[in-house]
Amino acid sequence: MDVFEALHSRRSLRAFLPREVAQADLEAILQAAARAPSGTNIQPWKVRVLSGAARQRLVDAVQAAHDDPAYVSDTEYDYYPQQWVAPYIERRRKVGWDLYGLLGIEKTDKARMHAQHRRNFAFFDAPVGLIFSIDRVLSQGSWLDYGMFLQSLMLAARGLGLDTCAQAAWINHHRIVAQQLGFAPGEMLVCGMALGYADPAAPENQLRTERAGLGEFVEFLGE
C-alpha cells in the first residue's frame, strides 16, 4: 500500500472480525514501527501483545471493574484538557454524536452508552490487543517519540490490510492493567490499541471523521 493511501485510509475502527492475525504479520508491523524517530535513539516504547487467554484475562478484569458501581477509577495522566475551549470541544462533541448516531444511541440512553464504552475494554472484539507503556523517568520529548511510534505501527498495519483503534480509555483502569500484566516499578501505561481485520458490516465502522482544511492550521511563510 502506498504511504499516502495508508495515511488516508487509516481510521479508528470499533468493530473487528474474529479472524486471527498471523504472528509473522505482528512481528513485521512492530519491526517497522520500531524505525520511528526517537530523540538520541532513546526508543521509549514497550509493548505487550495480547491474544487468546492472556487477552481475555485482562478484558474480564477491566470490564468487571467498569461494571461495578462501587469501583472508582482514576486516570494515569490527563489525556484531555481540564478546561475545554473552542474549536476542540465542538470537534469532540461532533465525533461522539456522529458515532452514537450510527449506532442509534440517544443522548438519554445511559445504559447503551455504558455498553458502548465497555466495548473499549474488549478491544472492540479485535483478536489482538496491544498495551503500551513507558518508563516514568522519561520526559515530554519521549512522549512525542511515542506518538510517532504509534502512528508508524498503525500505518504498517494498514500496509498489511489490517486496522486499528488507539485507545486512551485504558488509562482509567491503569492500576488493574499494571497488576494484570506485571508492570515493573516505574512503568507507566500510555494507552491500548485494538488490532485486527475490520468488520465491514458494522455500522460504527462507517464513521468518517471530518478534518480541518489546511487554511485552518497551516501558514505558509516565504519572504
Would you spell out the secondary-structure blueprint of this structure?
Elements: H1 3-9, H2 23-33, E1 46-50, H3 52-67, H4 88-103, H5 110-118, E2 128-135, H6 140-159, E3 163-167, H7 174-181, E4 187-196, H8 214-217
Helix pairs in contact: 1-6, 2-6, 3-7
In short:
The chain has 223 residues and is an alpha+beta fold.
When the domains are counted, the total is 1
**N→C terminal distance:** 38 Å
Radius of gyration using CA atoms only: 18 Å
User: Mean of residue pLDDT?
Assistant: 97
Order of helices and strands: HHEHHHEHEHEH
**Globular, elongated, flat, extended or rod-shaped: what is the shape?**
globular
Q: Segments where pLDDT lies below 50 for 5+ residues?
A: none
Fill in the CATH topology: NADH Oxidase
Strand order of the largest sheet: 1-2-4-3
Largest sheet: 4 strands, antiparallel
